[in-house]
Amino acid sequence: MKQAVHFGAGNIGRGFIGALFSNSGYHVTFVDIADQIINQLNEQKSYQVILATDQQETTTINHVSGLNNMTQEQEVIEVITNATYLTTAIGPNILPRIAPLIARGILERVYQTDEPLYVIACENQIGATNILKEHIFDNLDEDTKERLAGKVFFFNSAVDRIVPIQKNNTSLDVLVEPYYEWVVETEAVIPHVEGMTTVKELAPFIERKLFTVNTGHAVIAYLGYLNGKSTIDKTLADEAIVNQVEATLKETGDYLVKQYGLDKEEHGKYIQKIIDRFKNSHLNDGVTRVGRAPIRKLGPEDRLVRPATEAQKAGLPYTNLAKAIAAALLFDYQEDEEAVKLQTMIKESGIAKVLSEVSNLPEESEITQEIMKQYDALK
Ligand SMILES: NC(=O)C1=CN([C@@H]2O[C@H](COP(=O)(O)OP(=O)(O)OC[C@H]3O[C@@H](n4cnc5c(N)ncnc54)[C@H](O)[C@@H]3O)[C@@H](O)[C@H]2O)C=CC1
Ligand SMILES: O=P(O)(O)OC[C@H]1O[C@](O)(CO)[C@@H](O)[C@@H]1O
């Protein structure tokens, strides 16, 4: 049986990427640090993916097993030597931590076989696979790096499927939205995976997705949180917030249309389709999950700051994006490590300094001034 090794047996791992591999005839070895999930995978050897619809259609995912990357390093190295695909959905901040073990697997592999290995990071981050590749290369000697040519391929990708935190965290089963899209950047003909699309140039796809799905989601999450709402769908019952989301996505949309020559009307329909996906009440998707890790989300290349800086460069409006950034700065959820850290930073240094450190926005910049204005208004 063909082998896929997937790092991160969480919501996207089990509910999306791992499920596509299994449905395409692969055995999927999930690698994770959560012993409970690993043990259950090895005992049950299957789980269910349940669609968040009235009918709750269910698919059984077979041919799965698990390994712990902290305690079973040798076994992980062995599956890497035998795999066709190596994928991740672990969180962008974790990529540097798993890279040394992946490097050891690749090192072993390239001296054993010429069979190609395809490495794809499935994270909400532009160029995530390139970043993972850099971390892997930091752990390889020059000779091995040269040997990788023609044997190990690194492809960036964009992943789109909403998978909320699961109600029952003692079960492997995963509730997912029906919609999904996995776009991988390559011109090569690669082994077929049902549900994966390949494209020559990923930039328009990942930017369209990140600056519509993820920007829109973030706006709802941060405004919902500030307004005392618990979930995304409940937040969208507030017409004023829907208007704010639409106004923000109009700003990212204007940038995307200008940058990539998208059809304005088509893009407008895409925005509405995304907002409808957010309204799915079966997902029961918490605003604190969608708003999680605000320091990462305020990064210069991420869903809020990058479209604002790009809009400014293009002479387009960005006031609503500035408001979204201000709302993110007010996300003071105590259970989120980054939210707590961000609030401490704001208390110690003030907004302008934090935006310069976290978002790479110069303290005197027009964007920073606009965010500060919006911050004071929201506060
Ligand atoms: N949930 C969603 O709807 C979507 C998530 N994504 C992206 O997918 C990635 C994963 O997100 P989720 O699946 O939602 O998160 P999750 O928290 O459900 O899953 C992450 C998994 O990684 C594991 N993990 C954490 N640190 C680890 C380490 N050092 N070594 C091994 N395993 C480790 C955790 O135990 C967990 O099982 C993120 O980059 C996210 O942005 C992308 C599209 C949709
Ligand atoms: O997974 P992140 O990057 O923390 O952000 C949450 C976002 O990612 C998703 O999980 C999937 O795209 C969305 O639900 C949300 O926009």
TrEMBL record:
Gene Ontology MF terms in the entry: mannitol-1-phosphate 5-dehydrogenase activity
Keywords annotated in UniProt: NAD, Oxidoreductase
Upper taxonomic lineage: Bacteria, Bacillati, Bacillota, Bacilli, Bacillales
Keyword Disulfide bond in record: no
Domain of life of the organism encoding this protein: Bacteria
Binding site for NAD(+): 4-15
Catalyzed chemical reaction(s): D-mannitol 1-phosphate + NAD(+) = beta-D-fructose 6-phosphate + NADH + H(+)
Designated name of the protein: Mannitol-1-phosphate 5-dehydrogenase
Stored PROSITE patterns: MANNITOL_DHGENASE (PS00974)
SUPFAM superfamilies the UniProt entry points to: 6-phosphogluconate dehydrogenase C-terminal domain-like (SSF48179), NAD(P)-binding Rossmann-fold domains (SSF51735)
EC number: 1.1.1.17
Database matches in Pfam families: Mannitol_dh (PF01232), Mannitol_dh_C (PF08125)
Family: Belongs to the mannitol dehydrogenase family.
Domain Mannitol dehydrogenase N-terminal: 3-188
Assigned GO CC terms: cytosol
Residues covered by the Mannitol dehydrogenase C-terminal domain: 202-378
Signal peptide: none
InterPro entries, per database record: 6-PGluconate_DH-like_C_sf (IPR008927), 6PGD_dom2 (IPR013328), Mannitol_1_phos_5_DH (IPR023028), Mannitol_DH (IPR000669), Mannitol_DH_C (IPR013118), Mannitol_DH_CS (IPR023027), Mannitol_DH_N (IPR013131), NAD(P)-bd_dom_sf (IPR036291)
A biological process term (GO) from this entry: mannitol catabolic process
